[in-house]
Write a structure and sequence with these properties.
There is one protein chain. It contains eleven helices and nine strands.
Length: 294
C-alpha cells in the first residue's frame, strides 16, 4: 500500500523466493532473510536492499509471503527483516499481536495513504460519497486486492458502512495483480472503474488517476512505513541497524525505482533494482556507507 505492469501487470511476484538463510548476524554470519509482501514499494525496497547488501558481503535471501504470515514469520524469528509495516492503522492488528516479539527499526517513508481511486475521465464521481448514486456505473463493484490486506479490512468494516454503500456496492477481493490488470484494461477501453489503491504506487505516474475525496475520513490519515526486525535484530546486526534507522527515499526516488522494476518485467526485479542502484550510486553510497558483512 517512493511507496510492485507488476504487485502492486505488475510485479507481484518479486525478485525471487529463496527461503534459505535467516538468522545469523554481523558478528556470527552474513545470512539475512528479508520477508516481503506483494506491494510494489516492498518489492522495490526488498530487491534494492538485496542488491546493495550482497555487494557489501552479505548473503541476502528474499521470501515472499502474504501480510499475516510475514508478520508471524518475523515474530517467530524465521524472517529477519520486514520493510513495509504500515502504521499506525493498516497493520495495527498485527502490531498489537506481535509488538512484543519484534523490533521497530524506524520509519523510511512518512506519507503513505490508502485511497479509493478512479480514472480522471470519470467526471461525475469525485468523492466516495458519490459512489452510492453512481454505483451502476461501476456495476456495483469496487475492485480490490487481497482478502487479508489491511486496506481490504478498512474498506469493508469502515468505508462501506460509513458511506452507506452496503446495499449499492460490494468489494471484489482478489489480488493486487488482478486489480491492476483490471485497472489497465478499463483505462485502455476508457471504461469506468473504481479501485482500492495507495500512495506510494507507480500507477499514479503511469495513469491519469484521481483519488476520491473522503469527507468522513474513513480511509484514515497519512501513515508511516516502518522496517520491522525479529527480536534481537539490533544486537545481531548493529551496523545494518544504523543504516536502516537512517534510511529513507523520497517520492521521486521511490517512483523511479518502482518504474524501473515494473518496466523490466516479472522475474527481473533484482536486476532492475541493481540497475537503479548503479544509476544512483552516490545516493546508495551515502545510504549504505562503508557497510560490510563480517
Amino acid at each position: 500500500m517512493l511507496a510492485a505492469l507488476l504487485v502492486m501487470v505488475v510485479g507481484a511476484c518479486g525478485g525471487g523466493d529463496d527461503e534459505s538463510g535467516g538468522g545469523g548476524g554481523e558478528g556470527g554470519g552474513n545470512d539475512l532473510t528479508i520477508g516481503y509482501i506483494a506491494w510494489d514499494e516492498n518489492i522495490a525496497l526488498a530487491n534494492l536492499f538485496k542488491a546493495e547488501l550482497d555487494e557489501r558481503g552479505y548473503n541476502v535471501s528474499l521470501r515472499q509471503l502474504d501480510v499475516a504470515p510475514t508478520w508471524q514469520a518475523v515474530a517467530q524469528g524465521e524472517v529477519d527483516l520486514f520493510q513495509d509495516a504500515w502504521l499506525p492503522v493498516t497493520h495495527s492488528d498485527y502490531w498489537e499481536q506481535y509488538k512484543d516479539q519484534v523490533e521497530d527499526l524506524g520509519v523510511w517513508y512518512d506519507q503513505a495513504t490508502l485511497d479509493i481511486a478512479v480514472p480522471s475521465y470519470v467526471k461525475n464521481v469525485n468523492s466516495i460519497a458519490d459512489l452510492k448514486q453512481h454505483a451502476g456505473q461501476f456495476d456495483g463493484k469496487i475492485t480490490g486486492i487481497e482478502p487479508g490486506a489491511g486496506e481490504t479490512r478498512l474498506v469493508e468494516t469502515k468505508m462501506i458502512p460509513d458511506y452507506g454503500l452496503g446495499s449499492a456496492m460490494t468489494l471484489q477481493k482478489s489480488s493486487t495483480t488482478a486489480m491492476l490488470s483490471a485497472l489497465d484494461r478499463a483505462i485502455q477501453n476508457k471504461e469506468p472503474i473504481v479501485v482500492t489503491l495507495w500512495h506510494p504506487h507507480w500507477a499514479y505516474s503511469r495513469y491519469d488517476l484521481k483519488d476520491l475525496k473522503d469527507p468522513k475520513g474513513s480511509m484514515g490519515e497519512a501513515e508511516k512505513l516502518h522496517m520491522i526486525g525479529r527480536e534481537g535484530f539490533g544486537e545481531d546486526f548493529p551496523e545494518l541497524t544504523r543504516v536502516i534507522k537512517n534510511f529513507s527515499l523520497t517520492d521521486k526516488q521511490l517512483e523511479e525505482l518502482e518504474n524501473t522494476i515494473q518496466e523490466a518485467g516479472q522475474g527481473q526485479e533484482l536486476q532492475a533494482a541493481g540497475q537503479w542502484a548503479q544509476q544512483n550510486k552516490q545516493l546508495m553510497d551515502e545510504a549504505f556507507g562503508q557497510l560490510q558483512g563480517q
